[in-house]
Design brief:
The complex is a heterodimer of chains A (112) and B (113). With 112 residues, chain A is mainly beta. In chain B, strands 2, 4, 5, 9, 10 and 11 form a six-stranded mixed beta sheet that branches. Classes of the chains: A mainly beta (112), B mainly beta (113).
Chain lengths: 112, 113
Amino acid sequence: DAMVIQNPRYQVTQFGKPVTLSCSQTLNHNVMYWYQQKSSQAPKLLFHYYDKDFNNEADTPDNFQSRRPNTSFCFLDIRSPGLGDAAMYLCATGTGVGETQYFGPGTRLLVL
Amino acid sequence: DQQVKQNSPSLSVQEGRISILNCDYTNSMFDYFLWYKKYPAEGPTFLISISSIKDKNEDGRFTVFLNKSAKHLSLHIVPSQPGDSAVYFCAALSGGSNYKLTFGKGTLLTVNP
């Protein structure tokens, strides 16, 4: 089945210790997105890649970076996690033509 | 500044009855609207959508209504089933940015047997 996979599902890190979250897709979609969702809040777009073109949202902190080495994989790097970065991180893919985005199950990040 | 608002954090209905989930938006540039459904420990999954040129779209038990003048849309589920219990997110797309979604905070629907 074509799908969006996120690893790990749960990640615990220490305050200030760099962490990387992983996303892969078998849908061969052009666009990959990273969202941050805090409890009872709307998913908030951090950035997206359209093919190799990186698009950062204006209010995404510099602490958050992303890499897309190929069509299938996209990584979210948090250089120095703070307590406020504890959240669910959702990866999604799309064709770049409106409509549906396909989401992975998310990685829940806990910062101690 | 929330451009997509779901003012009801939760809704509880009896099995077999109608569920109505509401969503309001402020950005008149939005021209495509989607509903996503999310179960615990899973990512959101697409449910139904509507273009701004329509006022209704129906798919089985799910119908979305759009009132452009009021900047309001609603999702109707008839009849509601216990398996429909989930968080429902309203999302919007603007023509100027045709692949970036703006989400609401979601409404937790509980369908009681």
